[in-house]
Amino acid sequence: MNEQAAGSPSRRSSLHGHWSSRLAFVMAVTGSAVGLGNIWKFPYVVGEYGGGAFVLIYLVAVFAVGLPIMTSEILLGRRGRRNPIATMRILGEEEGSTPHWQWLGGIGVLAGFLILSFYSVIAGWVLSYIVNSFTGAYSGADLDQVVSLFETTSSSLTISTIGHTVFMVMTAVVVALGVQHGLERAIRILMPLLMVLLLILVAYSYIEGDFARAVDFMFTPNFDALTSEAVLVALGQAFFTLSIGMGTVMAYGAYLPEGTPITSSALTVVLADTLIAILAGLVIFPIIFANGLDPASGPGLVFEALPLAFGQMPGGIYFGALFFVLVTFAAWTSSIGLIEPAVAWIVETFYRPRAEAAIIVALAAWLLGMGTVFSFSVGSDFVFWQGTIFDNVEYLSTNILLPLGGLLITVFAGWVLCRNSSSEELGVGTGFIYRGWRFMARFVAPAAVVLVFLHATGLVKL
């Protein structure tokens, strides 16, 4: 590709407004990244793959793979100043390539929409667990009773539909209000609350749990337990936890004011997201170890093992409720990011009011999400390709679209975007920082994403 710019484009303005400050942007992107992947998935994959060694590989992957891709996605978003589809079409044409790069934007918008559809259902279960906590549904319960409670919750058409509906409405209302009055205002409230709740729960785990054993488990590497599969899972977790490849970061980048440093903003987001994931582990593992439970409980760690533990602990009913409020906040900030790219696309393409676009996207995602509701209830026997409707939507979005989107983002930023364009947008000159990002975006990140993709799709067996 040309290494000289074909002429800098005139500086565009976002049609949706801008973040009021760098802090607002960092909080918004961190909010989109912090979600069920941090508080639900990260602890259970750490538990499944041996603790400290996995955490170490994960940290390396976050900074070697996740950071350059996130930087690339913010860069593209701010340079295009439109929804991801329009941004990639504009940039493809300006860089002398092809407008067909708009399909990369489409991959991100579609991935976010598909994930939102089932994400809302899982978040609805979390809402029901807040009620279960306050009603003492798992107080003093044994393992069979706690497992039965989760099965009842997830398989109930009524409970799942109500939770899914409430959560989707919560998401749509925030996005309908716009960038500063909706997204930014909600994030400014939810993110500090999330951190306060997290720190309160860490203190509770320190007092009531086996904190020393948890710290040893998470931070003492046991490389004998580290397998090649665990390395690829750590790479995948690092990639997915940052919400890259699903259009959210690109859409949020479009609202980033000129002059705001991209590299330091991306680094701050990665550090904050990683810190929250680590703190979530320090909430969960002390409680798990104090109650003699298995840290390798898999996806049931949050919905089965933790309620069992909370049900036996002093004040467990209230702190259990607090934990599920925390998870709800994290899921809410993520879902706001998931829906925004599709809403922005409708507003810009069809010139519809933002509130109307939010309702359209939320309703469509709600309807698709009912397929997930049915997958765990009356439609559990309806299977094709990868399994139930939920299995197929989850597989297509997380195993195919996200890695493909992340790969193409870093390829475009590293190979199609010329040096002048990328260095101008990053605003760090052409020194060590720029060369480091460019090398990682061109070679290291794409290679890692290809490995994750091949492993996730089963094309490479370990």
Protein described:
This protein is 75% helix and 0% strand. It is globular. The chain has one domain (22-456): Amino acid/polyamine transporter I, CATH 1.20.1740.10. Helix 3 (52-80) packs across helix 9, helix 5 packs across helix 16 (389-416) and helix 7 (157-176) packs antiparallel against helix 15. It is built from 18 helices and no strands. The chain has helices at residues 22-33, 36-48, 52-80, 84-94, 102-134, 143-155, 157-176, 179-208, 211-219, 228-241, 248-253, 262-290, 300-310, 316-350, 354-375, 389-416, 419-426, 432-456. The chain is mainly α and 462 residues long. The longest helix is centred in the last third of the chain and has 35 residues, at 316-350.
Keywords:
462 residues; mainly alpha; Amino acid/polyamine transporter I; 18 helices; 0% strand; globular; disordered N terminus
Question: How is the topology of this model organized?
Answer:
Layout: H1 22-33, H2 36-48, H3 52-80, H4 84-94, H5 102-134, H6 143-155, H7 157-176, H8 179-208, H9 211-219, H10 228-241, H11 248-253, H12 262-290, H13 300-310, H14 316-350, H15 354-375, H16 389-416, H17 419-426, H18 432-456
Helix pairs in contact: 1-8, 1-12, 1-14, 2-10, 2-12, 3-4, 3-9, 3-10, 3-12, 3-16, 3-18, 4-5, 5-7, 5-14, 5-15, 5-16, 6-13, 7-8, 7-14, 7-15, 8-12, 8-14, 9-12, 10-18, 12-13, 13-14, 14-15, 15-16, 16-18
